[in-house]
Amino acid sequence: MGMMAVDRRMRPLTGMATILDTRPAETLRRIEPEIIRSGLYRRTGCPPFAQYMLARAAWMNRKYPAIMRKSGFFLGVKEFLMWKICGELVTEPSTASATQMMGLNSMEWDHGALALAGINPGKLPPIGRGDRIAGRIPPETARQLGLPSGLPVVPGVYDGGAMALGLGALEKGAGVINLGTSAMYRVCVNRPVTDRHGMRLQTYALLPGIWLAGAGVNNVGIALEWFMSAFGVRGYREMERMASRAMSGPEIPMLFPYLTGDRDPRIGSRARGLLVGLRSDHDRGDLALAALEGTAFSLRLVQDALFDNGIRVRQVRAGGGGTRIKTWMGLIASILGRPMAVSGAGQPGLVGSAMLGFTATGEYSSLESASRRMAGKAFRVQVRVNKRLEDRYARYGKALAQASASGVFSA
Fold first, then answer.
1. Residue 376: per-residue pLDDT
2. Which helix (H) or strand (E) holds 276?
3. Among 57, 93, 94, 142, which is 20 to 30 Å from 105 by CA?
């Protein structure tokens, strides 16, 4: 979800805005009615959200019109690096999906979305394929990088898509979760799926004939890092010990961890965190557990949206740095109520990218074959039926609806 403006000679005119940049939220409020009225969600799979490139570009048009006029192209991190490495101006469907400006069926830039963003279609890179060689590294660049000259460059897919492939998402009925700074919960489907009951799902194109239905959750590792910084906790192990002790204590408060907003329209780009039920006898351990539990409830919201739209998950596979927190994994497995396996691969996203590279260069005849050989081994997390967690999740959902309806998150 990054964006930078460059001129026609590919010289940067701005820095690279990232997912944590919430400045476009004000502009989104102005254009959100038109986004909804125009049916853009159904065409792109993306609900109104300030961190998509559409809102960023509209914000830049409003704040920095001179830069918009001077710009030659608008690029994300991948597109800029592809140009620097092999001189090819190209993107691919999974990354283009996360701009809110690509049609899920056409696999082309959506002219209605571009008009809202104020971007000429000639200022965006062509949409190629992520599983094909796009170029080769020229001699001088290869020398600077310490790589062989002529090495093929494959665009690949966005980080969550690569993680999904590395976790074995191509297997039918497998849901994949990535736990990092943000998180995702997605399932591979053979057609674009949007939410019939709202806009809770964000569906991205992945590869030809494959889409990822589900949603991203903004505040996962971010929420844990905030807790540790605010309460002087030295690392995840200390946080995990504190949370484990709190499990046998009294009722803990409920944390809604939406510190930087969220892609779920019930929460919104302007959302703030919310702590409910705090008492004088609660301590840091109770808040540590509330943070782990609140982020797990956010993933359950995604699973409920998948189920509501007829997408079933038989098992969940998890990867990312957060999987090292065993207490968290146990909570998530219990809250989701699905068999869960944690990847034994240190970096399943790199495994997924390697699958694409080896397939593109002919080492494997198909991505499915690469997946069978390369998807890492996993260890199982025990799923415990926990009525207390189910009751708390029900209360979480009701409190979320009340907070959303009353405007608490965006106050």
1. 66
2. strand 274-276
3. 57
Query: Do the Cβ atoms of 319 and 176 come closer than 8 Å?
Result: yes
Cβ proximity of 128 and 93 under 8 Å: no
**Phi/psi zone of residue 311: left (φ > 0), alpha (ψ -120 to 50 degrees), beta?**
beta
144: left (phi over 0), alpha (psi -120 to 50) or beta: alpha
CATH class of the region 159-411: alpha beta
Q: Model-level pTM greater than 0.90? A: no
Which residues does residue 211 pair with via DSSP β-bridges, in sequence order?
189, 205
The answer to whether residue 269 scores a pLDDT higher than 80 is no
Whole-number CA gyration radius for the chain? 21
Section 394-410 average pLDDT: 87
- Quote the CA–CA distance of 127 and 146 in Å, as a whole number: 29
Residue that is written with structure tokens 């944690």 in the block: 342
What's the pLDDT tens digit per position in 306-334?
A: 999 999 999 999 998 899 899 999 999 99
The closest of 157, 193, 196, 130 to 360, measured between CA atoms, is 130
Element (H, E) at 26: helix 25-37
**Range from 43-47, 169-173, 247-251 carrying the lowest mean pLDDT:** 247-251
The class that CATH gives domain 4-153 is alpha beta
Q: Residues with Cβ < 8 Å from 28, sequence gap 6 or more? A: 48, 49, 50, 55, 58, 59, 269
What is the residue-wise DSSP string for 302-363?
HHHHHHHTT---SEEEEESGGGG-HHHHHHHHHHHTS-EEEE-SS-HHHHHHHHHHHHHTTS
- Exposure class string for 158-171: b at 16+ Cβ within 10 A, else e: bbbbbbbbbbbbbb
> Alpha-carbon distance 142 to 10, whole Å?
20
Contacts of 138 (CB under 8 A, 6+ apart): 86, 87, 149
Interval 190-219: pLDDT, tens: 999 999 999 999 999 999 999 999 998 988
Distance, in Å, from the CA atom of 56 to the CA atom of 159, rounded to the nearest integer, reads 20
Is residue 411 very low, low, confident or very high in pLDDT (cuts 50, 70, 90)? low
Domain limits, CATH 3.30.420.40, in the chain:
4-153, 159-411
Bridge partner residues of 153 (DSSP): 135
Dihedral of alpha carbons 309, 315, 318, 323, sign? positive
Check residue 77 and give its pLDDT: 94
